[in-house]
Structure formats: structure tokens, C-alpha cells
Write a structure and sequence with these properties.
This protein is of the alpha/beta class. Helices cover 38% and strands 23% of the residues. The protein contains 16 helices and 17 strands. A five-stranded mixed sheet has the order 3-2-1-4-10. A five-stranded parallel sheet has the order 6-5-7-8-9, sandwiched between helices. A five-stranded mixed sheet has the order 13-12-11-16-17, sandwiched between helices. Helix 15 runs antiparallel to helix 16.
Length: 459
């Protein structure tokens, strides 16, 4: 069987392969999906198992694709460290850029790096370092000293410099002198002037560097044997799809509850009325990742947060039955396990949106009470999109989402009334994000079909 596209999504617990055809026509088709547990030690095993499953779904002995793409969050995903000058300025800007690219940030610092910081970087098993610091033509010393320290440390890791433009030539010299020149990538300043974010160039280069170096990562060394197209971090792919979708539907939120993490994406400018109260710049497209909220690898965190007694009461189970469910918990749940997974997914949703949303606060000073907004304003969001293995497969996902947003949350800037919940029924949002740069119209049509929102103008 010959088709146009295969896209593999290699997750922390599950590997998915999606098949597409007629990709260059006005009527692109989603053909089917194969699933298998991820094998982190050698991801090609899980990938081949998912391909075998897909062949059964399509009733094809042989499956050949013209193009094969992939996205991955396996083996910890894109683990990064971020270093800048001032936390609320260059560090936070760099953090937003890295998260939007699909990174999991495991270490952040503000100011000058110390020997202890360098040792933490070594021990954290990061796959990439992002250096920022200083607005353009502003402070130079902190970013220069940090760049020199990292170059001399000879970490043999990709380093993206996105700081003060004045430093670029000297940073190159530091890395060349240390024999680390091949690891250095320089892009535009992520914080070029006060209260100004410039995250898109940084996100783009992070994803390019990820693709270039992914074959060197643990568990991913054989990925290029089966993938001849782009490979990007899964969260970055979902954000690409969310940006594409926002142009057609309007302001939206997207959730991906996974086995290890829960990702939240928002694409909205927020309310013009409330913008005057913002205390800091916020990106139009924002991602947060909650590394402690997952329904398989991190299920124990959710169980601990909720409490066994609460779970037992909600599910109407005996202590013995609940213990049995937890002891034999599987990455792909059976019918007995699904009610527990739904309960954990609901808790992950609740916690993640509380952490993602901005909030309204009141400060008191000499002139009296002042209203301020900290974080992302979600009040103009009209659509909530559910993707990922949990929310697309659980039978009660729409009800779970509606219940989470129906619960009042004091001072949080959450979507208001008339919220529409959309489910990525085909579980292809990350896949269409991967192909959206090359095939934007086909990607959008495929996603709209999966969300079951009817025909839209995608010209």
C-alpha cells in the first residue's frame, strides 16, 4: 500500500503512527492510526510495533510512505537549561521561548553562573542550553561571562545564544577558542528592549537544533532510519497546530494530558480592556508544562494530591479493589481502569489550568488600591481543544473538561461563558503540527475534520 505521509508521535509511554493520503489535494485524508507502548531504550522497537498495528488497521501487508515525519517527547523530551540576567526580564523571556519550542526546562538561573550551577547542568542531563541576557545595547558583562564559562566547561551540548546583540562576535570567539564552535547557535535577542518579547526566532532555532542533534540523544539514535522528514518536539508540534487553528476559529486553549506531563497551550491576546493592567509582557502563544502531572508515569503524584480516600469515594470502590487497580495500572488502560484514569485526568486538568492562567490582584500604595494582572489573560478564549492520549481516548473527556471550567476559581483570568469544547477525535493534532509548515492547508483541514467542526474556509 502506497500513501503520502506517515507521522510518528513518540511519547513517554505510547508511540502513535498516523497515516495520511491525498495530502496535496483539496481533500486530504486521515487513513488510520497504529499504537504501541514506547520502548525508550530503543524507540524504533516501539515505532515498528506501532507500524505493525497500523498495517493491521489498514489491512495492508506492506505500507510505504512518500514522506515520514516524527515528533517526540520520549526519554524526557527536549531537556533544557535557561540562563539570563534578570529573572522577570531576560530569563522569563527565554523560558517562554523554550517552552513554546517544546522544551522541558529542568534548570534556570539569573545573574552570573557559578561552578555549582555548571555542575548542576552536567548532572541534569540537559540536551540544550539557552543563553540570554541584556537588552540590545544594554548590559553586556553577565551574558559574556556566562557564555565564556559554558564554553570553557566543554559540555559538548548545543548552546543557543539569544542575548544582547552586541555580544555576538565575542561569544563566537569564546566557543571557537574552547573548541566548542560547532555547538554554538546564535539568533536574535529574545528580550531586545524593555517589556518586549521576541520569542519566535528563538523557538524556530531551538526546534532546528533539536532536529539536528536528536539522533545523538539516548534512545533516539536509530530514529533517522525510519524518518526522512522533520523531527520536532511534540509540544512544539501541538503549539504549531494551535496557532494554525486560531487563525480560523479564534482564541483558544489546548490541553494535552499525557503519561508523564500535562501541557497547556493558549493562543490569545486577551482582553483589550484588561491589557492596561498587565504588569509584564506575555506571549500571544504560550505553553506551560506540568512535569508532575501525568496519568501514568506521574500517576502517584496525582493520587497523593487527591488522597486515596477521596478516590475511593468518587469511584465507589473498596480499598482492596482500588489497591488492585493501582498495582496493575497499565499505560493503555482497560475498561476497569478507565474510571480511575478519568479521575486523574480531571485532577491534572484542574491543576494545570490553575498554574497556566493569569490572575487579578490588588496592590495597595500611597495612591490607594491598584488593580494589576499577572500572567496570561484567558478571558477571551472561546474554544478548548483536547488532544493527547488521555483526553482523546477517554469516553467522558468532554464532561471532564466542562466540569473543570464550571468550578469557580477566585481571581483567575479564565474563559467566560459560551465556551466550546472540541475533541481531537483522531488524535492527530501533534502530527498535523509537524507537517503544517510544508502543508498548512492540508494540516488545517485534517485537524478541523478531527475536531468535527464542519467545513471552514482554509484558503
Amino acid at each position: 500500500m502506497k500513501i503520502d505521509l506517515l507521522v510518528a508521535e513518540i511519547g513517554s509511554t505510547t508511540t502513535v503512527v498516523n497515516a495520511f493520503d491525498k495530502i496535496k489535494t483539496a481533500f486530504p485524508r486521515f487513513l488510520g492510526q497504529g499504537l504501541a507502548p514506547t520502548t525508550v531504550s530503543d524507540v524504533t522497537i516501539g515505532l515498528n510495533n506501532a507500524l505493525s498495528d497500523l498495517k493491521q488497521v489498514l489491512n495492508a501487508e506492506v505500507l510505504e510512505a512518500n514522506e515520514t515525519y516524527a515528533c517526540s517527547s520520549a526519554a524526557g523530551g527536549l531537556r533544557m537549561s535557561v540562563h539570563g540576567l534578570v529573572y522577570n526580564m531576560t530569563v522569563r523571556s527565554a523560558q517562554e521561548a523554550a517552552l513554546g519550542a517544546g522544551a522541558n526546562i529542568v534548570f534556570m538561573t539569573a545573574g552570573l553562573l557559578t561552578e555549582k550551577d555548571l555542575e548542576t547542568i552536567r548532572q541534569s542531563q540537559v540536551k540544550m542550553i539557552l543563553l540570554s541576557g541584556g537588552v540590545d545595547y544594554g548590559d553586556t558583562q553577565t551574558a559574556l561571562i556566562n557564555a565564556q564559562l559554558i564554553a570553557k566547561a566543554k559540555l559538548n551540548l548545543p548552546v543557543v545564544y539569544a542575548g544582547n546583540v552586541v555580544n555576538q562576535s565575542q561569544v563566537r570567539e569564546f566557543f571557537a577558542a574552547a573548541g566548542q564552535g560547532k555547538y554554538l547557535y546564535i539568533t536574535e535577542n529574545v528580550y531586545p528592549k524593555i517589556d518586549s518579547l521576541n520569542v519566535l526566532p528563538v523557538r524556530k532555532i531551538i526546534q532546528e537544533v533539536f532536529e539536528k542533534h536528536i539522533t545523538e540523544a539516548s534512545g533516539m539514535s536509530k530514529i533517522r532510519q525510519t524518518v526522512n522528514g522533520s523531527i520536532i518536539p511534540t509540544p512544539g508540534a501541538v503549539l504549531k497546530a494551535a496557532l494554525l487553528l486560531q487563525k480560523t476559529l479564534g482564541d483558544l486553549l489546548a490541553f494535552d494530558v499525557g503519561g508523564a506531563t500535562t501541557d497547556v497551550f493558549s493562543v490569545t491576546e486577551g482582553s483589550k480592556e484588561l491589557a492596561q493592567y498587565q504588569t509584564e509582557p506575555v506571549p500571544f502563544a504560550k505553553r506551560t508544562v506540568e512535569g508532575d502531572l501525568g496519568v501514568f508515569i506521574n500517576k502517584d503524584n496525582l493520587i497523593k494530591t487527591m488522597g486515596l480516600e477521596t478516590i475511593q469515594k468518587e469511584l465507589k470502590l473498596s480499598p482492596e479493589k482500588l489497591t488492585q487497580l493501582i498495582d496493575y495500572y497499565q499505560p493503555i488502560p482497560d475498561s476497569d481502569q478507565i474510571p480511575l484514569v478519568e479521575l486523574l485526568a480531571k485532577e491534572a486538568l484542574k491543576k494545570s489550568i490553575e498554574r497556566h492562567a493569569g490572575q487579578l490582584r490588588y496592590l495597595y500604595g500611597p495612591t490607594g488600591r491598584i488593580k494589576v494582572i499577572e500572567g496570561k489573560d484567558l478571558t477571551m478564549v472561546k474554544y478548548v481543544v483536547a488532544t493527547g492520549g488521555a483526553l482523546t481516548k477517554l469516553p467522558n473527556a468532554p464532561k471532564i473538561i466542562q466540569e473543570v471550567f464550571a468550578q469557580p476559581k477566585r481571581n483567575l483570568l479564565l474563559p467566560q461563558k459560551d465556551l466550546t469544547c472540541l475533541i481531537d477525535h483522531d488524535y492527530i493534532m501533534a502530527s498535523v503540527g509537524v507537517i503544517s509548515d510544508k502543508y498548512p492547508q492540508a494540516a488545517l483541514k485534517l485537524l478541523l475534520n478531527s475536531l468535527k467542526v464542519g467545513d471552514r474556509d482554509v484558503s
